[in-house]
Design goal:
By secondary structure, the protein is mostly loops.
């Protein structure tokens, strides 16, 4: 019987599923974004 357990390092391209997931953290911005941002494939 094969037991799957989290590992500290990935040894190959298919081992990423065994790595612990990183938690996303969101920080409040200091001031709102007012400059236009370029869009992909269109006008900014």
């Amino acid at each position: 019987m094969l037991l799957l357990r989290p590992v500290e390092e990935a040894e190959g391209p298919y081992d990423a599923g065994y790595l612990p997931r990183l938690a996303m953290t969101f920080h409040p911005v200091e001031e709102p974004i007012t400059e236009p941002v370029a869009k992909l494939g269109g006008e900014p």
